[in-house]
Design goal:
With 108 residues, the protein is mostly helical. It has one domain. Helix 2 packs antiparallel against helix 3. The chain is elongated. Belongs to the major facilitator superfamily. Proton-dependent oligopeptide transporter (POT/PTR) (TC 2.A.17) family. Its main location: membrane. InterPro entries: MFS_trans_sf, POT_fam. Pfam families: PTR2.
Length: 108
């Protein structure tokens, strides 16, 4: 039960992960758009991209508000926090592995 457990104090790693996630989110939309610049029908592709992007944001919010809370209630706060941390670390790994394939735009 959540009331019976003491909430864990934030560790330096968890603070670093939360800062990193906050810095990535505003840039994710623009970064994704740059990957689609060289298409035949850019207007239609961008419309699909934004539809899927915001649909995935909504779906992830639903999962975050239901599944993660369920895990925290039934398995504890450490497991409930550990699973999202592991997922975020795996996303960072795949980002860096795929980095050579990404379209990079020089700033002016």
């Amino acid at each position: 039960m959540l009331l019976e457990e003491e909430a864990p104090s934030p560790t330096p790693l968890s603070l670093l992960i939360s800062i990193g996630a906050g810095c990535i989110r505003p840039c994710a939309v623009a970064f994704g758009v740059y990957q689609l610049v060289k298409t035949d029908n850019p207007e239609r592709v961008l419309q699909k991209y934004f539809n899927w992007y915001y649909a995935s944001i909504g779906l992830s919010s639903i999962i975050r508000l239901t599944l993660v809370v369920y895990i925290q209630d039934h398995f504890g706060l450490k497991v409930g926090f550990g699973i999202p941390v592991e997922l975020l670390l795996s996303y960072a790994f795949f980002f860096f592995v795929g980095c050579p394939l990404y379209v990079k735009v020089n700033s002016h």
